[in-house]
Amino acid sequence: MDAIPPIKQPAGPPRRRPDKLHADKAYDSRDRRAALRRRGITPRIARKGIESKTKLGRHRWVIERAFAWLHRNRRLLVRYERRDDLHAAFLHLGSALICWHFAADLFC
Fold first, then answer.
1. Residue span of the structural domain in which 89 resides
2. How far apart are the C-alpha atoms of 51 and 96, rounded to whole Å?
């Protein structure tokens, strides 16, 4: 959590941490929940044996879907480029292709 860079905002100083954190059951522990609360972050972590995973699934599905769409491009699934600028270029190209396919489905 300490490695998260500041979040840019249109006005005011940059935020250093998110308001809440969504996580899997694998991250459920009292120590992690307490550490998040000390930092002022509301933990939304499914508890083992108590909560179903479907509650957090609504929020996670969008991210998982986006990663799956990006991983259709094999070059992004396994990083072959050593240079960061080339990897970023392929990432932008993959994102543009996703937007193009999504727009083509909307208008056709």
1. 71-108
2. 37
pLDDT at 39: 85
Q: What angle do CA 73, 77, 81 make, to 5 degrees?
A: 95
Q: DSSP string spanning 73-106?
A: SHHHHTT--SSHHHHHHHHHHHHHHHHHHHHHHH
103 and 53, same domain (yes or no): no
* Integer angstrom CA distances of residue 8 from 11, 45, 62, 71: 9, 25, 22, 28
Token pair for residue 62?
A: 């969008």
Say whether both 13 and 37 belong to one domain.
yes
| Low pLDDT (below 50) residues in the chain | none
| Domain co-membership, 17 together with 42 | yes
Whether residues 19 and 45 share a domain: the answer is: yes
